[in-house]
Amino acid sequence: MTKHKAHNQNVNTGDEAVDETLRGSEDQHADDNVSEKEKSASDTMSEDAGKSGQASDVKEEQAPKEDFEKEAAEWKDKYIRLQAEFDNFRKRTLKEKMDLIQSGGSKVIESMLPVIDDVLRAVEASEKTDDLTALREGEKLIAQKFVEALRKHGVTEIDAKGQDFDSDLHEAVAKFAAGDEKKGKVLDVVQRGYKQGDKVLRYAKVVVGE
Asked: Cα separation of 151 and 62, whole Å?
């Protein structure tokens, strides 16, 4: 009886030990499962973070590229517009210059028309009269009118006779010995010279003393 009880106690103790071992194994297995899950979750988070970082890097790379392309397109558009504006300005300036030259020439011709009328009337009058005095007076008036018309456009005669020879205004066509007093002076004018403002239209052809 006592042996039987002892046997039962040993059996119960053994069963309890087995149960304890099984529980410990189950707890360890549960802990391992939790660890595996935590590790898996951590790996998943790391992978997601890596993918997120890669996506962020790609977006950052794409963003500057798009900005550069947009800025390049804007500069290209500005350049094309500026080139078109400059071309229009050049054409407009050239046209205005041509119009100015033509209008300037027209004004000069228009101012000469009254002088031409007087010349033609003088020619007709010379055929009908022998009054030389009247003809000479008419010629003087025509010459004065012509000079006045030129003066209105800034054209003046170059002062030459009796002046010091100036190669910027005069052209020496001959030289004569004239003594020390008239050396380097203009003795005579073979052809009158004219200038418009400071620009020489025609040099005065002169005889210079030496």
From this structure: 74
The tokens for 146 are: 């012509």
DSSP string, 70-136: HHHHHHHHHHHHHHHHHHHHHHHHHHHHHHHHHHHHHHHHHHHHHHHHHHHHHHHHHHH---HHHHH
Q: Is the pTM above the cut of 0.70?
A: no
Q: Over the stretch 124-133, which tens digit does the pLDDT of each residue have? A: 888 888 888 8
Q: What value, to the nearest 5°, has the Cα angle with vertex 27 and ends 26 and 33?
A: 85
CA distance 48 to 28: 29
- The model's pLDDT over 138-197, given as tens digits with 9 standing for 90+, comes to 889 999 998 898 888 889 999 999 999 999 999 999 998 878 888 999 999 999 999 998
Is 156-210 assigned to CATH 3.40.50.10320?
no
Place of tokens 């099984």: 22
Q: Residue 199: which of 159, 155, 165 has the closest Cα? A: 155
- C-alpha span between 92 and 191 (Å, rounded): 41
Of residues 201, 176, 206, the one with CA closest to residue 191:
206
Separation of alpha carbons 170 and 193, rounded Å: 8
Question: What residue segments make up the domains of the chain, in order of their start?
Answer: 2-153, 156-210
In b/e form, how buried is each residue of 56-77, taking b as 16+ CB within 10 angstroms? eeeeeeeeeeeeeeeeeeeeee
